[in-house]
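Title: Comparing notes on inverse folding

I've been comparing how different people in this forum approach sequence design from structure. To keep things fair, I'm posting one structure and asking everyone to reply with a full sequence. Here's the target:
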C-alpha cells in the first residue's frame, strides 16, 4: 500500500473536493468521489488510478497553491499510483533498482541482455554474427538459435503478466465490496473497454488536457493513442508471426507480409507516441507532478522508443552485416521492456483499466455511501 502520509494527504484533498464539487464534470474521478462520504485506503488508490492526469482540476481549482489549502490533486494521485504499483511489484530487487534510477536500470538491463545475445551469437562464429544473410525464412536463426529467440521472451512476458496480475487482484480487493452480477459485469466491462480504447477521460472537461500551461490541448490524448495502438499492433505482429511459425514459416518474412506490415506500423506509431510524450513530460509544469514520477516515466518511454526504433532498424538492415547486432539489440530492448513492465506505466495502464471497470460497475449499481 502507499505510505500513510500520501494516503492522509489524498484523503484530506478529496474531502475538500467533495465539499466543493466545482470539477465534477471534468472526468470520471469526481462522480466516483461523490458516491462516497468517506474513503478507505483502497478506495483512495482506486480513484487515483481512475485519474488520467489531464490536470484540468489543478488549473481550475480555487484552492490550489498559493491558497492555504495547498490542493494539488494530480500530484497526490500520481504519488498514490507510483507508490501503490511499486509496492505490489515483484520481485522487490528490480523494483528498488528501477525506483533509484529508472533510466539507468532500463538501459542497463537492455544492454546487458543484448550483450548476452551477442556473446551467444559469437559461439556460432563471427561470420554468423557479422556476415550478410539473405532475407529468407530462418535466417535470423543462423545468428541466434530459435529456442533462444522464442523462449526467453515468452517466459519473461508470462512472468510479467503474472506479477502484474497478482498486484491487480490485491488492488481490486482493496476497492471495496463486490458489486457485479454477470449481466452487470459484462455491460460494465464493455463500457470500460470503450473508455480504454477512446481515452475519453483524457478529454478533461471536454477541451483536452492542460499539457504545458493553462491552455487546453488534445495533443496528449493523440500521442497516447499513437503509443497505445502502436503497442497493440506490436502484439498483433508478434501473434501473426507466432501463427506463421506454427504453420512452418519461420521469420523473417517478406516486407509486404502481415506480420511485417503490422510490426512496421507498430514501430512508427510507438516512435511518434513515445517521442511526443517525452517532449510533453520535459516541457510540462512540474507543480502538479509527483517528484519521483519523471525518472521512471522517461525510462519507460525511452525503452518503448528504443524497442520501436531497433525493430525498424532491424527491418531496414536485415540484408546487411548489421543484422546480427541489430537483432541482439532489439531482443535486449524487448526483454527489458517486459522485465520492467510490473514497475512501470505499462502496469498502471492495466490498473487504470480495472479502475474504469470498477467505476462502470458502481455507476450501474447506483452505489452510494
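Reply #1:
Here's my take.
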Amino acid at each position: 500500500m502507499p505510505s500513510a502520509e500520501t494516503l492522509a494527504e489524498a484523503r484530506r484533498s478529496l474531502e475538500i473536493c467533495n465539499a466543493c464539487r466545482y470539477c465534477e464534470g471534468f472526468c470520471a474521478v469526481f462522480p466516483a468521489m461523490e458516491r462516497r462520504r468517506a474513503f478507505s485506503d483502497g478506495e483512495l488508490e482506486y480513484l487515483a488510478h481512475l485519474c488520467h492526469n489531464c490536470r484540468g482540476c489543478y488549473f481550475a481549482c480555487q484552492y490550489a497553491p498559493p491558497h492555504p489549502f495547498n490542493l494539488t490533486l494530480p500530484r497526490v494521485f500520481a504519488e498514490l499510483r507510483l507508490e501503490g504499483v511499486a509496492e505490489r511489484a515483484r520481485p522487490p530487487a528490480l523494483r528498488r533498482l528501477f525506483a533509484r534510477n529508472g533510466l539507468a536500470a532500463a538501459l542497463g538491463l537492455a544492454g546487458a541482455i543484448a550483450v548476452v545475445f551477442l556473446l551467444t551469437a559469437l559461439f556460432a562464429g563471427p561470420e554468423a554474427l557479422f556476415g550478410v544473410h539473405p532475407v529468407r525464412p530462418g535466417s535470423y536463426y543462423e545468428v541466434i538459435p530459435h529456442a533462444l529467440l522464442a523462449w526467453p521472451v515468452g517466459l519473461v512476458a508470462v512472468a510479467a503478466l503474472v506479477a502484474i496480475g497478482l498486484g491487480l487482484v490485491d488492488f481490486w480487493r482493496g476497492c471495496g465490496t463486490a458489486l457485479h452480477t454477470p449481466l452487470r459485469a459484462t455491460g460494465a466491462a464493455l463500457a470500460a473497454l470503450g473508455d480504454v480504447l477512446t481515452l475519453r477521460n483524457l478529454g478533461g472537461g471536454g477541451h483536452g488536457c492542460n499539457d504545458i500551461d493553462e491552455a487546453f490541448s488534445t495533443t496528449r490524448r493523440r500521442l497516447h493513442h499513437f503509443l497505445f495502438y502502436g503497442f497493440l499492433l506490436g502484439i498483433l505482429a508478434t501473434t501473426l508471426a507466432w501463427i506463421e511459425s506454427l504453420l512452418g514459416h519461420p521469420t523473417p518474412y517478406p516486407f509486404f507480409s502481415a506480420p511485417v506490415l503490422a510490426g512496421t506500423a507498430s514501430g512508427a506509431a510507438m516512435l511518434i507516441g513515445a517521442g511526443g510524450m517525452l517532449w510533453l513530460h520535459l516541457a510540462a509544469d512540474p507543480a502538479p507532478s509527483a517528484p519521483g514520477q519523471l525518472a521512471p516515466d522517461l525510462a519507460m518511454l525511452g525503452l518503448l522508443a528504443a524497442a520501436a526504433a531497433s525493430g525498424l532498424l532491424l527491418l531496414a538492415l536485415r540484408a546487411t552485416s548489421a543484422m546480427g547486432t541489430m537483432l541482439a539489440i532489439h531482443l535486449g530492448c524487448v526483454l527489458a521492456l517486459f522485465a520492467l513492465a510490473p514497475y512501470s506505466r505499462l502496469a498502471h495502464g492495466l490498473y487504470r483499466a480495472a479502475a474504469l471497470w470498477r467505476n462502470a460497475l458502481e455507476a450501474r449499481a447506483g452505489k452510494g455511501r
